[in-house]
Structure formats: structure tokens, C-alpha cells
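quick one, three chains, predict together pls
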Amino acid sequence: MTREPSAVLAELQAILTRPWTLMEVCGGQTHSIVRWGLDQLLPDALELVHGPGCPVCVTPAQTIEQALELAMRPEVLLCSFGDMLRVPAGSAGGTCDLQQVRAAGGNVRVITRPHQVLELARRQPERQVVLLAVGFETTAPAVALLAEQACALGLSNLSLLLAQARVVPAMAAIAAAPERRVQGFLAAGHVAAVMGHGELEQLAMRQQIPVVITGFAPLELLQGVLACVRLLEAGTPRLHNAYAQVVRPQGNPAAQALLRQVFAVADGPWRGLGSVAGGVLQLRAAYRHLDARVRFGLSSPIDAPERVCLEPRCRADQVLQGLLRPSECPSFGTACTPHHPLGAPMVSAEGACAAYMQRSGRHG
Amino acid sequence: MCLAVCGRILSISTAAAGDPALWRCAEVDFGGLSQTVSLACLPQARVGDQVLVHVGFALSVVRDDP
Amino acid sequence: MVERVVLGHGGGGSLMQELIATELAPLYSDPAQLDLDAATLALPHGQLAFSSDGYVVQPLEFAGGDIGKLAVIGTANDLAMVGARPLHLSVSLILEEGLPLALLRRLVASMAEAAAASGVTIVTGDTKVVERGKADGVFISTSGIGLLVAPARIAPSAIRAGDQLLISGDLGRHGLAILAARHGLALEPLPSSDCAPLWPQVKALLEAGITPHGLRDLTRGGLGTALAELAASSGCDGLLLETELPLAPGVDASCALLGLEPLHLANEGRFVAVLAAEQAARAAAVLAPWGARLVGDMQQPVGVQPQVRLRTALGSERVLPPFSGEMLPRIC
């Protein structure tokens, strides 16, 4: 059904009887909302809270430190998506990041797809090629495929520094929090394209909260908001798929099978949130030889308690849970800016803090 | 997360040796820009299909009328 | 065996003389200048403009140009941006030991052609050679002088709220050509740099009696950064209408795929003019043959600091995030 954004907004205004607080979980949706100024177009009674669905923001500081350390080893070529390059490790010793390590002589290569890592490993057999594998279930199948292909080719110089996380467990943690402000979720459409309805349906039922699978284009986002408000106004907390052109109820079975083959679900730390039950993926035993932490003798964040390596002034933990608006943080726009970020949500193009910086001055 | 773009499959190929599913790829057109994309998890995709692609990996076939 | 630059070529001895005489002579309009330590020039009456820039682009050669063409045209364009007719250039070359002479020859030919196209003469220069690994093939530094033609000073202090923004053509070609070369993007048709002299267009504006309040070429950091600088210097917000911005073919798709901001892509043959409102329509007509477009205006700032705002196709507004200095592709 093709509609104009204005028609969707008009219907939204018509059915709204009271204020609602919605959370969009996916950082890509945050980016799209800000890029299109959608929050300006929504009725004032609706508040959109930006959730922790930004893998850049939630990658444990310890993992970033491990990436920095590996990159400085002469035999290693550390491959990373561009998003991670300016994220500070945030340890007490200073805010180092991959960009600075590269400047200091570390071998850091920006890649746009995991397949490039395979090519690099084949072309440079004398090098240990490591992928800093950050992402949610959208990215995980491509990383799993890389693992399978590396095994098929018998590559001994490719490994994965894993920071793969799972979205729904974090949503469940936020929904279960006693101080929860969020009344409805816009669920990440591309994660759902892989994983399907199942977990989201369970979340809606268990937590009695509406969950709407939503896309990324402005019209798709507005349709997701409308669907969520409809459910809230009707008092029917269930799952609705507003992105059916891409998301099937069963998701992508082949991708899920690949994920099950290569990864196991585990409890693990999210930067700023602490341990999330079932929140991370780790390599299964048959693929453990591809684990960079095993290969290079590094500790796993799963085994070690999450070190709170946040810069003391950084309130990312509260922002990521939707408990603090970025603009309410004392450092926002002063000590913490995109050029000099204190924490990950200000660096990432889709982080909540960076998103707030892009709001026009008149909106604060 | 999940910066993904839709494109149309122009052609499909597999590797000469090894597991065909693992290496199945497509040339996908993104409106003037074409790239090689893995179809390892979309065995049902055909030439002419619109697919959703993230980091060089096809996740889903896009339907115009769901 | 490929003929290459060796350390001796920078040593000041016979090898260097040979390099200059055979490979670098085509750069110079007057071969006699090669014998002098400095150029002597008869300068016309009036005020001079003087500009300098360094060029370190990789790859050295790309569709639509090379580092040599960029170096000549880039400095000539900097002069044009203050309303000066470019006249003379100096060229300083830092060559890496091992650089193929055939590549050097191509760059020299390209620079000579670019100088002719820009209406400048290369009158002096210098050549050094550094050890393998100390330069990325070639580093080029050019300085240029021009004759100020504009009747009034073209500087951000002249910019007022209400001034209109005119860009001289479509955006993103050079940045896209570099990206395609670096990331192996298979684009059809292959993107080509827009590197070109800007003086003809500036001259056309001045001859039509139009004196811009601001001129800025849209090189590194693109229109977004140029406008951010104008906003900061003038104290006004810059507002761009997204629906009016002409993006070159392939820019939209490539930026969507890599998660890049099109307004931060570099252009080497485009500028933005800030014009008094009453002159804007005429300026657009004068520059129409080059594909110029009115795209927004300068406004009273709405926030604490002047910033660049975009009005989206939906009627909402956003602030353009600052360019960090490196085009980093995203997956998120």
C-alpha cells in the first residue's frame, strides 16, 4: 500500500489520544530518523527514544583495546568496518582508537564487506589477517559465511575478533527494567529479515508490549510508528510486521541455519549495559581455531567481568537504555562532540548522541 | 546497524569447484553501480529478483506486494 | 627494465640536469627559465592574489585526471575564488626513488596541458628526490599569482542573511572517481573527475557586473564543508534545499551503498557562490551553460553557533554533521 508521508502523519494525528514513548532499537533507523527529520514531523505527544541497536556503541571497550593491541603487532593486518575507526577504547590511559593506532604505524585496513578479508588472507599468506567482527544478526550471516569459506580453503592466517551481538535479548532487558519508560518498540527490520518473527513475538507476549517490525525509509518508519500507535491506542500488545516486503514470518531459514552452524548464543557484555542474557554470539568448537582471542592468547569478554572502561563523564549507559536524553547529559555538545567524543554514541553516525547533535539548533 | 540497499540481480554464478551453495554469487545492479553479492543464503533467488544486500551479502528477496 | 627515478636525480648534479632537460622542460613556457634560480616577471598594475597548495592524492592517476592536473588547476582555482585571473605558477616536485619515468612523463604532459587550459604559465620550480618509502610516489606543491579583477573584496565578511547560494554544477564526481578507484566500485559508466578551471565562470560573473559576496571551491570535504566554513566566518547559517542539489550520476547509489554523505564528496571543478538576493537570478542565468543551480540561502543562525542546515524533501530540517576529515564507509 503506497501512501504519502503526509497521509500517514494525518492518520497518526487523528488516532492519537495521549502521549506515548516509543523506542526504535536499530541505529540505522536512528540515522534515518535524524537524516529525514522525522521526529520533527511527528506529533509532540509522541516521543521517540533511541535504543542501543548500534553495534559500534555496544562493543565492549575491552574488545576495542584488543583490536588496538593486535593492530600494533607487525605480523597482523587488522581489518575493520569504517564505523569502528574513531571509537575510543576509553580506558584510563587515554582515548586511543584505531585511527590513532594506524597513524602510529599499526596495520589497520578499512573494509566494506567480510569477503574482502578472505581475499586479503589469500593474497598475503605471510600475514595474520584479523577481522574485528562487529554487528548484529544482520551482519552475522556474512561473518559466518566467511568462517565457512576460510575452513573450506584451509586458511591458517585468517581469524575473527568477535563482537557479534543479538538485538532481541537487549530489547527484553530494557522492557523488563523496572524504570522502563518505553511503551512500544520499533523493531529492527533488517535483523528481522534474517531472524523472522519468533523471538519478537515472544517478547511482545512476555512483556506485554507492542512490537512493530519497521523498515528504514522515511515512509516505512512513519508506517511503523503508526502501526505501533494503533496497537497502543487499542491496548493490544502484540507483534505487527510493517516491513512485509522484506521480512517473512520465518525470516531467512538458510541464514539461520548458517548462524546455528557457526555460532552459539551466550550471555555477554554490552558496553554501557553490562551483561545481557543471550546477548552475544561466540564461535562453536569446530570454528574455535578461527577465534582471534584463542590464536593470540587474549581473554574473552564473556569470561572476564565487564570492566567499566567508560570515561567517567560519559553517560552512554543511561542513554543506551533510553533513560537519559543525550541533550540532558552535562557533557553534551561541550566536553563531548563528534570531533572529540567521550563515548561511542557520539562517534557512531547512528549513535543516539550524534543523532541529537544533528537536530537543528531551534530544536535544542 | 544494518545499512542495507536493494538491488536487482543481473546474473548468477558459482565457483568451479567446492560446495556450490557456499560460493554462489550474483552481479547486482544498484541503479548504475553493480557489485558482486553472495547468494549463499538465498538459494531461491533468480535473475531479475530484487534483493536486500548488506555488506555484500543478500539477506532477503524483496516483494513489491507482500 | 623499467626506467625509474633514482636518488641521483635529486642530487643537483648531471643526473638532475638531465632529468630537468629531458623530462621536466615541457612544464615551462620559457625554457630559459630553467637556467635561473628565480623567475622574473613583468606584473600588470593592480592588486595581486597569491595562493599555495600541496597535493598528495592517491591513486596518482584516476579517471578524468591525475595529481599533476589537480596541482595546476587546484591552485589556479584558488586564485579564481578571490576574483583573480590566474597568471603564473611555480611547481615543486618531491619524487620518490623508484617512480617510473614513464609515469613522470605522463604527469608532466598533463600539467602542461592543464596550465594551457587554465591560461597560466609555469615559470619556476624545484625538484627533489627522497628515498623509497618516504613519499607516496609523488608529492606536488604549487604556488600561484593572479591579478585581482573583482571590483570588490570577495570575502565572508561581505555575506549577509538573505544572500542566495549558487553552485556551478553537479556534485561528487571527483570524490566518486577516487572512491571507485580505492574501493573497486564497479560503476557503469565509470565515474570521472570533474577537475577543470573555474576562472572562465568567475570571469563571466564579473563581466556581467555581478560581484559575489563569497566564492568557495568545493574540494576536500565537499559543499558541506565549504558551506560550514562560510557559515563560521560570516556568522550566518547556510540552508540547503535537498531537492535542489544536483548529484552526479552514480553518487546517490554509491553513497547509499557505502554509507557516505554525498555533501562531503570532493569536487575539483565546482564552486559555490554567495550572491546578493537581487543578483542571484542573473548569476544563475549567466552560469546556466555550465549546469549551475540555486540551492539555498544564508540565514540568521537558529542555534548557538552558525551551522549548515538541510531542508529535506519532507519539509523537515537537519543539521549537516561535520566532516571528520576521512571518508569512512559505514556498515551501520
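Residues 183 and 292 of chain C are 30 Å apart (CA to CA).
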